[in-house]
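Morning!

This is the sequence you dropped in the shared folder:
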Amino acid sequence: MLLSAVLLCVAALPVAGVVGAEVRDRSLAEARSQAIDRKLVTATLVGDPVPATPMPGKTSTTAEVVWVGSNSRELRATVPVPLTALRGSDVTVWTTTDGDLSDPPLTSSQAGARAGIAAITVLLAAMTMVWVALLGVRCGLGRSRGRAWEAAWRRYDLGYEA
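The structure's back. Tokens below.
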């Protein structure tokens, strides 16, 4: 029974690999699309940086910035800026082709991380299902054996030999 469980877990390896490869391919396609649709623009700090709670290793805070988007419209947002930033200084922000604020495009290493996480998740899910099934079978067999022992003891108590 344990060998069957191990074999089922091993059989999940190719499935996890296929899922990981598919997630990687889709994530890389998304990264290529984002690299085309997003660009860095220069924004100007119009507000003073929000005082940050001093923490060791913290190098940024937030501040309001303004930049010119598509159709020459002025856009504002609060974005992370270096602790040393001052009002009027320039920072770069990622925007969409419409000029709206966005996250940076997905990198190839992030796509690889997504793929790895997906593959590991599939493998862990398969292993969990096998483990739960194994426990269910063991519990069922234990109950069956318990009933058989109980019946044997009843027969013995009544003077019947098995």
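Headline: DSSP finds two helices and four strands in the chain.

More detail when I'm at my desk.
O.
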